[in-house]
Specification:
The chain is mainly alpha-helical. It folds into 2 domains: 74 residues, no CATH class; 66 residues, no CATH class. Helices cover 65% and strands 0% of the residues. The protein is elongated, with a radius of gyration of 23 Å.
Length: 159
């Protein structure tokens, strides 16, 4: 859910609600509210701070970001978060929050079938790099369990 805008933020941007909305979502069905590319560029420069503060979160970015700051085309919504994560454009706090969410989704399907896990993690846009790292870490014995196992053989042989 987008952060609530303060009236002063909108007013201080010097842009109309329609202009800010276009920087967020792109042009509406009736076309752009800007009369030229130069006007659009100027609006982004003027309103970028407000637009990014309000709508650049949760691994998502407003249309203006993709138009003016991102190298390449806007990724499909279903893979936007992992794409931005891989591109390294997320704020540290945003990346940490997103990775924690993805880790919860990864753990939620533990014990499920391979197909169900794959479909769920794909639906949640969990990067395969994280899945591989978490799976590998789960397979490695921890130092604590290795120490326990080293002491266990003696106890295991006693009946």
């Amino acid at each position: 859910m987008p952060r609530a805008a303060k009236v002063s933020d909108i007013e201080d941007s010097g842009l109309s609600y329609s202009e800010l909305m276009e920087l967020w979502l792109g042009p509406g069905p009736g076309g752009s509210c800007f009369d030229s590319r130069e006007a659009l560029v100027a609006a982004w420069a003027q309103g970028r701070g407000v637009v990014m503060r309000l709508w650049a979160r949760g691994g998502r970015r407003p249309q203006g970001f993709y138009e003016f700051e991102y190298a390449g085309e806007r990724p499909p919504y279903a893979v936007e978060r992992s794409t931005l994560w891989r591109a390294g454009v997320l704020a540290d706090s945003e990346r940490t929050e997103l990775e924690a969410e993805w880790r919860r989704e990864y753990e939620a399907v533990r014990g499920k079938g391979v197909r169900e896990r794959r479909e769920h993690l794909e639906h949640c846009d969990v990067p395969h790099e994280l899945i591989e790292a978490w799976t590998a870490a789960r397979r490695r014995p921890s130092r604590h369990s290795a120490a326990s196992e080293a002491a266990a053989p003696e106890a295991a042989t006693v009946k």
